[in-house]
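Lecture 7 notes: from sequence to structure.
We start with the chain below.
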Amino acid sequence: MPTAMTQNPQLQNRQSAGDALSIAFELVATPAVFAFFGWLIDGALGTRPVFTLVLCLLTAAYAGWKAFRTYSDRMEAHDRNLPSRRAESTSESGDG
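Predicted structure tokens for the same chain:
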């Protein structure tokens, strides 16, 4: 059964653009914020640039992993909703 989102391509495009902007912001802003906190810690401890680099790299790696995982989950959900996949799943459930 189609949802309101799939019935309105313009709404779907806007939602997709918003999701992409959100992920892009997260990939840039989160590591920058944590790098700033690392810079503050480094300034207080005199260990420049250890905490800056560690916090920036860890959060960048996490943000990248999270973006990849979100994309993979959405693609799996999309694949499950393809008409060919739905036909396969109904024929398999009817055979048993």
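Points to note: The mean pLDDT is 88. The CA atoms of residues 47 and 77 lie 46 Å apart.
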